Amino acid sequence: MKGFIEECLRKCLAGERLSRNEIIRLLDVEPGGVDDRFLREAAREASQKIAGGKGYIWCAVGMDYAPCSMNCKFCSFGEKWGIVREPRHFEPEQVFAHVRTYAENGAAYIVLRTTEFYDLDRLLGFIPEIRAKIPGGYAIVLNTGELDAAAAAKAKAAGVYGVYHALRLREGTDTPFNPAERIATMKNVSASGMTLVSLVEPLGCEHTDEEIADSFLNAAACGAKICGAMARFPVEGTPFGSSPMISGPHLAHVVAALRLSGGSAVRDICVHKATHEALESGANVMVVESGAIPRDSDFSEKDWAGVDMARAREMLAAAGYEISLPPAL
Ligand code: SF4
Fold first, then answer.
1. Does 329 reside within a domain?
2. Residue 172 maps to which CATH number?
3. Domain containing 106: what range?
4. Complete DSSP assignment for 251-289
5. What mean pLDDT is predicted for residues 92-110?
6. C-alpha distance from residue 183 to each of 46, 196, 214 (Å)
7. 66 in ligand 1 pocket by Cβ < 6 Å?
8. Domains of the chain: total
9. Most informative mutation of 69, 116, 147, 171 for ligand 1 (most atoms within 8 A of CB)
């Protein structure tokens, strides 16, 4: 297995994406074992070389805590689950306050995140004010509903750097979406010239290596430059409320395999929720988030789960990364 991992590292550093079979073979390594330690060290080396030792903080502002009629089985906003009793929206001044704190503390990405049907013009309307009030080299990213080519072009023209969008694991089964529609949005984002960011998510214990590989390869084929993995959080009251989370070592293992899988086209690997072991296994992007959080039943006035900018900086630095602003488009 060592020789195979070395060969995958060589291909990654040469810029080559691994084949589906190679990715599955890496994912099949036992998390926490000797081979996995070797894999994670190789991924760390790849991260240092491909990302140039740069670490990035992804700061998501959850704009609307509101029931969403799509009812994805893992999301606290699904209206069927009845978790959101009193809808809340961040007031513009609250949005600016959060963005200011993030920008002043080294955020690379400011992510305006919404439920599926948030009005795009309203969302884009925040951008000129954010830019006017809060200086900095941060990039503005959207995480919102589907975008056709015209909507993607409009977002790009409004100064949006990138869009987070994913074909979620078991899309169409654990969600009511037509997978083709999700993929179309992902392709529209890349075609518009914005950066597509797309993780393998929401990752649970039941997902197979084949599903993980296919999810990653789909993101890469749609042009994603930032990939990675996000665990599914068991929110009480959702259909996955009693499903256990994947373990920290397992998540770090998946992150390591994905870091070696994307060659140099996938330049950054994000992990959520970040751990030291995942950041030492090839991930160089971590998340700070506030407001409406699909992984929680409550609105979060403060940064979620105790991970604020100071903590993110500390964790990335401890893993050997230099906190950086995003690369130019
Ligand atoms: S994941 Fe998105 S689309 Fe699905 S229920 Fe939550 S907000 Fe709606």
1. no
2. 3.20.20.70
3. 2-323
4. HHHHHHHHHHHSTTTS-EEEEES--HHHHTTT--EEEEE
5. 96
6. 28, 11, 13
7. no
8. 1
9. 116
- Closest residue by Cα to atom 6, ligand 1, is 75
**Residue 328 forms part of a structural domain:** no
Q: Distance from CA of residue 163 to its chain's centroid? A: 10
Half-sphere exposure of 28 (CA within 13 A, CB side): 9
CA 121 – ligand 1 centroid, Å:
19
Residue 94 resides in a domain: yes
Per-residue pLDDT band at 264 (split at 50, 70, 90): confident
Residue 199 resides in a domain = yes
Q: Which whole number is the average pLDDT over 286-301?
A: 95
Tell which atom from ligand 1 comes closest to the C-alpha of 294. Answer: 6
Residue among 287, 224, 253 nearest 58 (CA): 287
Contact 293 CB / ligand 1 (< 6 Å)? no
